[in-house]
Every structure is written in C-alpha cells, then in structure tokens.
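Chapter review: from sequence to fold.
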Amino acid sequence: MEIEKLTEEVLKNAGDYETLEKGRVYHSNGLVRKKVFSEYGIAGEVHGNHGTYYPILYYEKGKLSFRCTCEKKDMCKHVVALGLSWIYERKEFKPVEEILGGKNEKEKMEIIKSALFKLPGFLSFI
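The token string follows.
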C-alpha cells in the first residue's frame, strides 16, 4: 500500500504551515473518527467547527492526493488531521472489508445507492 509511505514531511510539503498547525490541533483533540483503510488509501470522519467532514488521502501515480467534503480545494486541516492520525494511530484504522463485512446485502446496496447520488463520478466505478 502506497499510503504507508505517508509521513509528516509529506503532509508538510503538500500544504501550508497554518493548515498543518490547524490539522495538528484537530488531531490532538481527537476529532478524527470512523477511520478506515484499504489498498486504495485512508478515509475518516472529522468533526470540525462547522460540521462533520469526510477527508480521504491516497496516492495516485506515486503522488499524494486528497479530497475533503469541506469547501477548501487545497490541503485542508481535516485532511491533515486524518493523515496525522494514520501516522500516529494506525492501529485505530479498520479495514474497509471489516466494516462492510458486518453489513447485509440490503445495507450494502443502500450504501451504493446513496453514494451513487451523492458522489459525482461514483458511477464510473460500477
């Protein structure tokens, strides 16, 4: 898994100082929850000042990539907090298969249908 290469230095190079520091605060305050990983990357739920956000971190063509449901297009504090959580609390991350394995077929179908209409581009994976 390429995501295992993630270090603080990589995060630092992907964002600015202020974002990194805000992400550190979120991480140290335990605001990253529902931490999952797969061979594709990591995802989590981060409780922020204005709601709950869902950042993801992954490598694409050897380069760190990320997305978040917040309005910021560049590296955000939610992504940083997730990355720091992976670096320092990797054992808290559950494999996606473990989470989905506990769902029945109907629940899995509901997850897919929900994602289809909430996530642009999701159809390309079906």
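Two observations follow directly from the output. The mean pLDDT is 93. Residues 7 and 88 are 10 Å apart (CA to CA).
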